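Q: ABC transporter ATP-binding protein, please. Structure only.
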Amino acid sequence: MWGKTVSVIEELVIRDLSKTFISSQGALSVLRDIDMQIPQGEFVTVIGPSGCGKSTLLKIIAGLDAQHEGDVTLDGEPVRAPGVDKGFIFQEHRLFPWLTVEENIAANLSLKHREVRDKVDKMIHLVHMDGFAKTYPRQLSGGMAQRVAIARAFIRDPKVLLMDEPFGALDAFTRAHMQEVLLDVWLQNQTTVILVTHDIDEAVVLAQRVVVMSAKPGTIRTIVPIDLPYPRKRSSTAFLELRREVLNQLEAHMVEAHAVISAPLNDEGGR
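A: Structure for ABC transporter ATP-binding protein:
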C-alpha cells in the first residue's frame, strides 16, 4: 500500500458494485462495476465530475442504500444497514442545537463516566476547540461547528468514516485550516477515511490514494497513489506533479464525454 504501513487485512472491500435508479423515464445507471479494497487506517479521497455517483457510493458503504448489485463488506461482514461501525460527516455539521460542544461530541455517551469525559476533553483539544466546551452551536462559526462534527465522529472509533464534501461550504482559508485539523485527528486515530471532494488540492493534500471517477455511469477511471509524507507542501514539485496527474485524468474524462455527446447518431439512433 501507499504512503504508510498498514494492516494486510483489507477491511473494506467493494466488489462489482453497480447501482441503477428506476424512474418513470426509465433506468438510470449511476454506478457500474466499482471495485475497491481499502485497508484499515487508510485515507482515500474520491473526486470526479458532478453526477458520477460519489455521494451514492458513500451512502452504499454507510449502509444507507441496500438496493444495489455487487457486494460491500466491512471486516468480512456484508454491509446492509447503518451502524456505529460506520461514521458519516456531511457538508452541514448537523449538531444538536440544544446541546453544548462537549455534549454534542459525547452524544449518546455519558459525560458522568471519567473515561468518556477524558475522551471528550482530548477530542476538544485535538480539534482546537479548547475553551468552547460549554458553547452552543449557534455561537460557533461554520468551521468551528464542523470541527465539533469531526470530533463527534472520531470519538466513537468507527471502522470507517465517510465524509461527503465536509468543507465544501467553507471559505478557502477556513477550508485549509480544517484540512489540517482533520489530518491531525486522523493521524492520532488511524481510522479508515473515505472523503468525497470536488477540490483537487484537497484530494491530494489529504489522501494516500485519490480515486478519480468518470460519470454516466459512475466508474473508477484510475486510482492515483499519493506517496508523500505528511504534512504536505502544496508548492512542492512532487505535490504539483501529482496534482497535475489528477487534473489530467479529470480533463481527459471531460474530453471523452464531450466526444460522445457530440458524436452523430447512426441510422438506428445510436452513436
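A: Brief note, in case it's useful. Strands lie at 12-23, 26-38, 43-47, 69-74, 77-78, 86-89, 160-164, 192-197, 209-214, 219-225.
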